[in-house]
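ok trying again, last paste got cut off:
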Amino acid sequence: MTKKALSEERTDVNWKIRKGAVSLSLQPYEYLTDRLDDQINWYDKKSTTQKKWYYCLKVVTLICTSSIPVSSVIFRHQSFTAIITAIMAAIATVTEGIMTLTKCHEKWIVYRSNAEVLKHEKYSYLTSSGAYSNLNDTEKFHNLVDRTENIISNENTNWASLGKKKGKSIQ
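nice, full thing came through this time. structure:
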């Protein structure tokens, strides 16, 4: 799409909004599928990725650290024993460093927790239970949006504040 066509489309949308021809409110089904399910899937996918990274790095660390004493005993009279031991120790150190820097374990837990909390909100809403009981449909929907957006916003705020703390500690 050209810049001119895009500009014309934006102008057309803005005109429709000013004239009230476009409804800006989401329907519950749209919110559930376009926003809530999308966020649940995103957190679920990120959680799975972080879990895989954590397990892979941890397994490499465990194999290397447990192999050091074994190789020292098996190859005790060989000239390359020190080199093998040093390489395994270096690999273990690097994998532990990667886990510390990337915080894959912490991210795995946070992402999984957020996915489960969002699922809980979705199913509580759909079954009219918990915070959604004794409410009419409009109140239920507004309550769902408020609660789920608060969960998502808090998670984003937590990561932003974590980044700021790191920045301050480096200076």
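cool. Helices lie at 3-19, 28-74, 81-102, 104-126, 137-170. Residues 32 and 113 are 19 Å apart (CA to CA).
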